[in-house]
Amino acid sequence: MPPIKVTVKWGKETYSNIEVNTSDPPSLLKAQLFALSGVEPGRQKLVLRGSILQDDSWGKAPPKSGATFMLMGSAAPVAAAPDLSPSQPAPEDENQSLKMDNEPTEEELEYMATKKYGSGIENIFNTCYMNSIIQCLFAIEPFREGVINLQTAIDIERDSNFGSSRLGDRYTAVYLEKNLAAATGRLFTQLTAGPTVIPRAFLVALQQRHPQYATRTPGAMGAPIQHDAEEFLNKIFAAVRISTGCTSDSGVGGVDPVVDPLFRVATRLSLRCESTGESTSEEGSSYVLKCNINEKTANLIDGLKLALLEERTKAPLSVDHPASASSVSPETVSVSSGDLSASVSSSTTALSAAPRVFKGQTWLLGDRLPPILTIQMMRFYFSRPLSKLAKILKQIVFPLELDVYDMVAEDTRRTLTIGREELARQRQAKEEEAHKRRRQNSSYGRRREGGGKGGEEEEEEEKESGKGDAKENAETAPVVEQEGGDNKGAESKPTIAPIPKVKVPTGLYELVSVVTHKGRLMDDGHYVSWVKQDGQGNNGGREGEEQGSTGERSDERSGKKSGSGGGSNSAGNNGGVTNNSASAGSVWVRFNDDVLSLHKEEEILELKGGGDWHMAYLLFYRAVTVEVPLSLVA
Where do the record's region annotations for Disordered lie (predicted)? Predict the structure, then answer.
């Protein structure tokens, strides 16, 4: 087997183009690294794809060319000649010295603490806009799996057409869109393996389809310019949609099976003209909701409602095309000899000369709310003095749980109301159960200390309560007689049939990831992503320890209901998005390109802006759904 070239990172040092023969055991690579770093093989810990290699095995699969290893261990100090004079103290214990040398560095400890939560992406000259969006999309499991499956289908299609397609077909827009979608799938696969990904192939595919991403600053040594993260997000959505057969990258031209079921927001625009009484209504869709910011905007809800308001001015009514009977009264119009224009009164003519102003707002459709709600903070505006896009630094408070019920059209709120009532009942039951546990623990403590009465009476009450609940459930549930039973005289025992249930939306959304921007100009800042790790697979099945080991605290503040969805996006189904809003003590991971760090939930709320620190620019919310009997929504 021919040797491959790999890269090894050791602290601040990087050793590139190290030749490795994978038919040899890793112990030979450790010998090479000993010559380069001075770290003895016995002290070396080589990490590949999140796992520590043994001396005689490469793990699940040997490394590929271009793989990156992480070396842990410290070089042994050069031994000095011992001073055996009587005044010198006895030499240190060699085992104690060895133990101190083997202590991991701060960087190594941070890596070991964060490796189970994901893989970093190297910044290739101002590609933080790309890295932050990719990390947020990767954390959405249905989207990740859908894009990886799409990449496999594209590769199979190209293999079957190899040799039969013309060279010119490789430069069509559709071909390049499919190339970008396939590159996204391969990048997701690389992130699954970890530990750090260098996205050169993906960047090439992006620049081939959209040459503006290869633009550099003026000058002989010009660097690649910064780009807008939300614009890049739309480019990925467009590539996936077109690759699945949609004829347009917008909300028309068909529904794709990957983007639309997860992100598409169905809307209805309702407008009315007060002067003429005309009303119009039109349905549309969007993938990203806007949060407008003005001097009165204080929080996310205010900005969303402001962006949903609409005002349109239309041309004056033509006398040849009157608006409706309600806009022109019988006293002002009289028809004679078939010539309407010759018999319009002066008052009507004056009314027609005025432009028509329609006011209203866009409503969300409650029966088609998406599993993932993406919101953009409209922080950038064109500054004339600077001739650049500057940023609004104002604080905009956003919640961990977003309620969009008031933004939903009234005629589509029925299912939401059912879901909210059930969610309130479940949360109340959970709160009562927690209170009951606290009483039991308190009673047990009193019995241990010998003070007060025991908790036997409370236990008896709970047993009686449980019997009552079981009896009530047995009375309300349908009964099905058991089939069979040849024994005569034996009474057939009834069985309780399971009640069919369906997941419904509640109009509530929990925050799962944030893209922040640091800086005062769009082309001179830095993007970072913050992703919630709630133990439900946000790390995409990466190798390493099980998720959630550091987030076991109870979160009585949220009290949200667990659930998961699958299947079609009907009746508020969340399209397979894991929904566990009871994310007690959730851990958040900041993906600062290839550097990962752990953060608390309270720190996420500080990304509201108001200074030069990171502030939220894109928010990804996940729908909170509950199970209810099918009969309630049928």
Answer: 79-102, 426-498, 531-579
Question: In the block, which residue shows the tokens 């709310």?
Answer: 369
* Whole-number Å distance between alpha carbons of 236 and 258: 12
Measured CA to CA, the distance from residue 532 to residue 593 in angstroms comes to 16
Contact at 8 Å (CB) between 87 and 162? no
Closest CA to 283 of 362, 349, 217, 187: 362
Pairing of strands 372-377, 289-291: parallel
**495 compared with 547, residue with greater pLDDT:** 495
Contact 399, 511 (CB under 8 A): yes
Round to whole Å and give the CA distance between 155 and 532: 32
Q: In order of start, what are the domains of the chain with their CATH numbers? A: 4-74 (3.10.20.90)
Q: How confident is residue 558, by pLDDT bands cut at 50, 70 and 90?
A: very low
DSSP string, 60-85: TSPPPTT-EEEEE--PPPPPPPP---
What is the pTM for the complete model shown? 0.69
Token pair for 175: 């071909």
For residue range 110-128, what is the model confidence (pLDDT) as tens digits?
666 677 788 899 999 899 9
Structural contact between residues 74 and 37, judged by C-beta atoms closer than 8 angstroms: no
